[in-house]
Write a structure and sequence with these properties.
mainly alpha, homodimer, DNA-binding, Tetracycline Repressor, domain 2
Amino acid sequence: MVRTHLNRERIAQAALDFIDEHGSVSLSMRKLGTYLGVEAMAIYRHVEGREALLDCVLQRLMSGVVDGLDEALGQSWQGYLQDIAHRIRDVAIRHPKAFPLVVTQHPAAPWIRPPIRDLDLIEHLLRTLREYGLPDDMVVDVYQSFSSFLMGHLLLEAMHAGADPTAPATAIREEEAPAPAPFGRINLDTHPTVQELSGLLQRNTSEEQFEIGLEAMIDRIEANLRS
Amino acid sequence: MVRTHLNRERIAQAALDFIDEHGSVSLSMRKLGTYLGVEAMAIYRHVEGREALLDCVLQRLMSGVVDGLDEALGQSWQGYLQDIAHRIRDVAIRHPKAFPLVVTQHPAAPWIRPPIRDLDLIEHLLRTLREYGLPDDMVVDVYQSFSSFLMGHLLLEAMHAGADPTAPATAIREEEAPAPAPFGRINLDTHPTVQELSGLLQRNTSEEQFEIGLEAMIDRIEANLRS
DNA sequence: ACCTGAACACCGTTCAAGT
DNA sequence: ACCTGAACACCGTTCAAGT
């Protein structure tokens, strides 16, 4: 008797918490049930099924991005894009195990481009860019380029951050390889260039690359606007 | 008695064929068994489990990229990158249902950046860029930027191409909405800008965007080289 | 050496029954 | 109105048994 009173929001939040901890493949209706202190099949009274549940999680994950976005206005479309980019990056970094849902869950329409798939955010983006005076074809072009950019960078960052520090599927035998991992099962002898560049390859430059790439994309839009 | 003689390659090919047709979530060991005309659990004699099976599919999917890549040499590193980019794009377009495995399956090491995750291809890329005279830190930088770029563009293209033309999960009731689909469950009244730009949004400019973005990335590398 | 078939522990989902 | 519990059809994986 711990306060049941199930509802859509409580379920979505619990599912997100569970995914943050154990990953989305480990989430089952039954486990989420016991996680909620309820008999599992009670969830179906509030959400249509597992697929719909993951859609709820995704929406909860992304709904925070558009909130408070208006305050960032009044500057420039460049600053506005920077703001959105960093907000979505925060989501990807804070929820690395949940973020890949943006690509796993099929969007509601084919012209929706993850990770910008929340309709309110799309509306906000298109409307705001228009208000800053960008022509319509340019507005749509920015939406599409921007999505691709975020997708590429953030999915890779999330994969990196969300990778289990725990051992891979094949359990480690104690007698072999107490190595620090990054070249565990990779034969460096047959890939000498990888070996020689291993130091550089292991450097994590995600944040710089993100900032540089974002700047470059904005520069490219500016150049297009002038031509 | 149709020639069984199971082996790793035949299994991987059959799994890829199955995924191309039905998607990777529908692939089960049992279904693949009957698809191969074999008693399902026979697969375990050749691959360790479902996860390993998907890794095999992924490897088969990408192994073709590095083959015949040497012939493209002798030109310039720009042409070389263009060649790889288009080869990987071909894979994404020809196997839209299988391509998302590049992000679903965790890579063997954290410094590996999908979709360029085949070790032979990574070795080839790093070595070749070096031979063209790029400095080491630039070589690694190109690997990373290039991966992000391909990831963003190709995953979105694959999602678009692989989306089921069949109805979504919620079966369509006959009396409502015989609409052509792209705005099926989306309320356009609350998203007027989306409505006004719907014509532009539905245009498929994936290929142009890919070519333009690729060119821009290469230009950026050239500029970095001169500075 | 390779495949089979029964078995185990888990799934998503449905539905009649409880309160 | 909301939750329960049994049931059904499926899973991945193990293992002794067949040939």
